[in-house]
Design goal:
With 457 residues, the chain is α/β, with parallel strands linked by helices. The protein has 2 domains: 36-127, no CATH class; 142-438, TIM Barrel (Alpha-Beta Barrel). The protein is 44% helix and 10% strand. The strands form 3 sheets. An 8-stranded parallel β-sheet has the order 1-4-6-8-9-10-11-12. Helix 5 crosses helix 7 and helix 16 (354-367) packs across helix 17. The longest helix has 25 residues, at 382-406. The structure holds zinc ion. The site of zinc ion has 4 residues, from loops.
Length: 457
């Protein structure tokens, strides 16, 4: 039977929605945080303004700020003029798709009354008794398990959701030449960064010299894994270059114990570089994959190719490179072609650019075995997560349908590749996921019990 291109896409899209996906990277806020995103005249909550403000749309097209207790209608009167400039943005499609499917509203065509009504609908969904996050993620978006990187509290290991997989955010060690470095977060002022020194105190470890510090790192990775973290995660590309030189230990040790003011830039970089190499070694030692943010960040220093020396010299470390390396999607594909210890994670890519995502998946499928590609939503809200999941499935269905139509792969191959990217590859990379699968039972069990928490306070 022959099918038109559109039919091919529809049939594949339906298939890609028919099985539960596994999302290997997200920042889904805890329910209590979602419920306090904005201060409305009716009290704290989440509303339409809050949804847009926690989306990627204002990263490129700023929206007016909202003073506490300002009525939504006043904010909307100013904000609505910004949206027409963003109608073609993938970040716009990402959230409007969710608004359409979850609330039944065409955001681009609604009038002011409809906007106010939609706003009330969103507000109601986030009331204290609501089960909205679980419903949207596990039922509407059909996602079974979500790796949640707690960007609001780096380093914390804590379950906020029963469908959550723990991620050990580890980059704080790069900044640990002095405890004073943890007084504030350089990326997001006001956000809290967990200090490894607090952990040492919690565990009764004395950190007197560089070796003590390295022992602490080892213990955090070992205990993090024992407490249920399935992966390490690092996003230092927002702060510095992704080139990490191989630095002798003695040179890195010179910075230890000194605050930033007593060090020059080269000494700080030596310390960070050495620690990054040590983290890559610990990832191999404890057999826990290493997820690394590449692409968007401190441009142009966040180019994924800058990691080549580290990857090549650590063949036993499983590097999972994030965001498809956007905009360097071809280069990251070649890295996966060249280095067998590189996996690609497409999270965030389709909501930054659907067009680039289509090109990337095509190029990767040309160069990279299909069992080395994963995906995630990389969003803060259930709506954001839903939109990202849907757009990713759309993009994959288009790419796979095009390859079927070109005669490059058969229909069964297309289904198999789609299922691997959205689900099976995560199960292979993280075999511990098997014991957390629940959809086949029809009942979501509570999150596992953790006997302690790494660096929670
Ligand atoms: Zn992220």
């Amino acid at each position: 039977m022959t099918q038109s291109g559109d039919q091919e896409i529809d049939v594949l899209g339906e298939y890609l929605r028919s099985f539960p996906a596994i999302d290997t990277h997200d920042h889904l806020y805890p329910v209590e945080m979602l419920q306090q995103q904005v201060v409305t005249p009716d009290g704290p909550g989440m509303d339409l303004c809050g949804l847009w403000q926690t989306s990627y749309f204002p990263w490129t097209l700023p929206l007016p700020s909202r003073p506490p207790a300002q009525p939504f209608s006043q904010w909307w009167a100013q904000a609505k003029s910004a949206f027409p400039h963003g109608r073609a943005l993938s970040s716009y499609h990402h959230l409007t798709r969710a608004i359409h499917d979850l609330y039944g509203v065409d955001f681009g065509r609604m009038d002011d009354d409809e906007a106010n009504h939609l706003n009330e609908q969103v507000f109601c969904k986030y009331q204290s008794t609501s089960d909205w996050a679980r419903e949207v993620v596990t039922e509407r978006a059909n996602i079974e398990l979500v790796f949640i990187d707690p960007c609001w509290h780096y380093g914390e290991l804590r379950y906020y959701y029963p469908f959550q997989i723990l991620v050990l955010r580890i980059q704080q060690f790069l900044h640990g030449h002095s405890p004073a470095e943890f007084a504030h977060d350089p990326v997001v002022p006001g956000k809290h960064r967990i200090s490894p020194y607090d952990l040492a105190g919690q565990w009764g470890m004395q950190i007197d010299d560089f070796d003590d510090y390295l022992d602490l790192m080892d213990r955090v990775v070992a205990e993090g894994k024992a407490m249920g973290a399935y992966t390490l995660k690092q996003a230092v590309a927002y702060l510095r270059t992704l080139h990490f030189a191989r630095v002798p230990k003695a040179r890195a040790a010179r910075a230890f114990g000194k605050p930033r003011g007593e060090l020059n830039a080269a000494e700080i970089q030596d310390f960070e570089d050495f620690i990054m190499w040590r983290l890559a070694e610990l990832s191999a030692k404890y057999d826990i994959p290493f997820q690394i943010h590449t692409g968007p960040g401190l441009l142009p220093h966040s180019h994924p190719m800058l990691l080549c020396n580290l990857i090549e010299a650590n063949p036993a470390t499983r590097f999972i490179l994030f965001h498809g390396g956007v905009p360097w999607v071809s280069e990251i594909g070649m890295m996966a072609f060249k280095f067998p210890n590189v996996w690609l994670d497409a999270n965030w890519m389709p909501i930054l650019s659907q067009t680039m995502a289509r090109r990337a998946f095509h190029e990767w499928l040309d160069m990279v075995p299909s069992n080395r590609i994963m995906w995630g939503c990389d969003s803060l809200t259930p709506e954001g997560l839903y939109g990202a999941a849907e757009i990713t499935r759309d993009v994959l269905a288009q790419v796979l349908a095009e390859r079927v139509q070109m005669g490059n792969i058969g229909r069964d191959d297309a289904r198999d590749i789609g299922r691997k990217i959205l689900r099976d590859n995560a199960l292979t990379m993280f075999p511990q996921l098997e014991k957390r699968l629940w959809k086949h039972t029809g009942k979501l069990p509570p999150a596992p019990f953790i006997a302690g928490m790494v660096a929670s306070r």
